[in-house]
User: What shape does this take?
Amino acid sequence: MTELVTDRLELRRWRPGDLDAYAAIVADGEVMRYMSSGPVDRAAAWRELALFAGHRELRGWSQAAVVERSTGRVIGRGGLWQPEGWPGLEVGWMLARAAWGNGYATELGRAVRDHAFGALGAGALISVIHAENARSIRVAEAIGSTFERTLELHGMPCVIYGQRPA
Assistant: This one.
């Protein structure tokens, strides 16, 4: 995905120096509560960054580093995701616990949605959300998505929220 800038955030390519911040985020059990892997160690965090970089190479877009512009800190990841076998083109987000409650997920979700429908010409977007993750469901609704269906993915009960361009 082309790097995006919002009022408070920058979505950019991953850099080697981002590993410390990202590893701390994905080691947090509360952040990873609804992710299939659960908390992961530093080596697994590095493999995720490599996976995102490879996905970008193959698709042209991926989950990007989410940087708080006022501080320059990496506060999570967000962007588009569609590995082989995925149920659709996903707009997704994951933020450090310290960044919760600031509207950042909604802000980045809207920017990614607009980029996908505008610059990329996407015909539909989904968000794959653990069925019990009420916070992410609220974000999906705030960016204009509605419930479409349930799905079990990697052994987790999920809901699919989706939308089409206006």
